[in-house]
Every structure is written in C-alpha cells, then in structure tokens.
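Data card: per-record layout.
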Amino acid sequence: MARVVAHLGRPETPQETADRKAEFSRRYRSSKTFRNLIAALLVIIAVVVVVIAAVPRGEPAPRPAPDVPALAAELEAERGRPVLSPSLGEGWRVNQATVEGVGGTEAWTMVYVRSGETGFLRVAQGFDADEAWVGQVLDGTRSTETTEIDGITWNIYRPANPSGTGNIDYALATPAGPDYVLVYGDAAPETAALAAASVTDQVEQLREVP
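The structure for this 210-residue chain is written out next.
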C-alpha cells in the first residue's frame, strides 16, 4: 500500500518516493562527508601537537672542548717527538684539535676562539715541514720582518688578501727541529705573540731533536 504523506493528503507517487529517497541519501552523504572532514582535521591537529611536544626545547648541549694536553701526549708517543700544547689564557677556548693535511704535509692544528667574540687563532705544528709549507697555508704570503719572543725568532706574515687565506691577516712562524710551527688567524698580534710564547719550551725541545 502506498505511503500517505501528511502534507499532501494522498499517497506518494512513485516519482515522489524516488525523489524523497534521493534527497535523504544526498543529505546523509553530505552529513557523513562533513563528519569525516572534522575527524580528519582532529587527527591532523593531534599529529601536530605530538610533533611539537616531541621537539626538544632550548639550545643543544655544547660540544665538549678537545683535551689538547691529552691528545698532544698521544701524538708524542706516536711521533716520538715533542708535540705542541699551547695555552692562550683566560677567555680563549679550543673548539678543534686534529691532525690535518695541507699540501701533502700533516699538521697538528688547534683552533682557538674567544668566548663571546668573533675571531680565531690557529696554532699548528707541521710535521717534517719547512717554510714552503707555511707559504702553502698562507696562500704564498712571504715574510718581510721578524720578531723575538722569549729568545726565539719568529717570522712575521701579513697576508695582503685575507679573504684568500680564510680571513688570516697575521701569522708567526719559526722552524722547530724537523718541524715548523705556525701561529695564524685574525686575532691581534699581541694575542698571536702570547700563543707563541706559550709553546717556547716545546719549540726549544723540538730543536734538540736529531
């Protein structure tokens, strides 16, 4: 028996029944799509919250400074000769200490920076090196003057083009037995002299190596 529709006062026609069911299906699908959209948004928000919560806060823990004396002692035992262990005093810290190669020459190189300031100073011991190695490091810069620090004569280098030498604008170098010692960077000449003075004993010991 056909369904009587109250507002029509008569049974629905087949077309009216089909239209009513179609409209119900449309509304149901629309409602379901909206619910799915809300659910998807809630899932995305939850994922974002989890990701944000998982991100560590604050600055990463500073990397411990290399133990220069300990590393130098290991190299001394390996190389069978004194190895530099400079001291620049308060305010300076070492952030790199390693053996690196420049122009086929291995060099024990330490990089010092001043806390809270820009600028750097390197102290390097070129193993079995000569003045040619210094020229390679300093992009061909030649020494035109010398200075005496604690009884040791050091050649002074002033690169004319610091941008071509990694921002190096001042350097000191001296032969030390089989090796060559180089102090270089963009720190003040007084600071370079301080670093050179701190390795006086080791330079003298190297000069006694046969």
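Known properties of this structure: The longest helix spans residues 14-54. The chain has two domains: 14-54, 68-208.

See the next section for split statistics.
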